[in-house]
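Quick one: Phosphoribosylformylglycinamidine cyclo-ligase from Phycicoccus duodecadis, structure tokens please.
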Amino acid sequence: MTEPSETERPTGITYAAAGVDVEAGDRAVELMKESVRRATRPEVLGGLGGFAGMFDASALATYRRPVLATSTDGVGTKVAIAQALDRHDTIGFDLVGMVVDDIVVCGAEALFMTDYIACGKVVPERIAAIVSGVAAACAQARVALVGGETAEHPGLLGPDEYDVAGAATGVVEYDDVLGPQRVRAGDVVLGLASSGLHSNGYSLVRRVVDHAGWALDRHVDEFGRTLGEELLEPTRVYAADLLDLVRLEGVDVHALSHVTGGGLAANLARVLPDSVHARLDRASWTPPPVFSTVASLGGVPRADLERTLNMGVGFVAVLPAASVDAASAHLEARGIRTWVMGEVHPAAEADAAPGEVVRGAKGVDGGSVELVGDHPRA
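--- reply ---
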């Protein structure tokens, strides 16, 4: 058998031919360096590009009993809106909000975060835009972005498709941990306004929009902008403002709840002891128009809407009545609208509740929450 000559030999398959562009990845890192440099803290050691992010933890020696808190999350199908609009510099706020704001719930200060981007094709400018949003949100939250990873998955994701995830670590003094152990009957439930849909329920929202035949460039008078702009509104990042609230002299915060997947009632129930029942009055706030639009376009039942979307409430604080005025003043000064939503009662009152009662959620055997009344018309 005659061997093929050198000129006849087939060209070998390279990594680039398989769809992975290492040089594009390196270019993306170069483009994001300046953004990441702004999302730092004095404790960060080394720079971007190491195998691991390093953080000087010697300050933990000043704690009597330091408790580490960690969280990981993504932003779900909201990335489909960013991809459809080809705008990628805001999705990082959604990622940081979903991760870091879970850490502040227990009263912890988030210290550092890492991110992960999986894409079908590395477009350096697109990756840099995503990371610029992550870095800007980290800087706002006073969290260091110490590293991350961009993975190219040709054949698994389309060239314009990507997904993002992140993880963060924080610390809190054991005696300062917030949660059910502090909540008492008589406490007040304070609502903190969301910036819109945040990053939950987009599978429902996208299904409703598709069913209605609405295009993302459709101008919606109630929103004062296009549908796409409304749906891409970044998640508000509360961590720094809430951490300052927890440390504020004269304010005694008992519990915080981040209103994400599962809705208001279920997430509040997670931070209540089983000895109490919270009754919230819908008449105390009017959800932004995007929520009523989704409801009317899709004929979505109220119960399903409230189990899926935040309904205009991004966070909830549970605290004594004596702390409400000072807490509200602090948050309003930071641009966060607040209002009293209801009160915490003994658990026995749940038995006489006329409406649907939610007890615990996501494996937590917590207290119960009831929503009563109707929202005022906008």
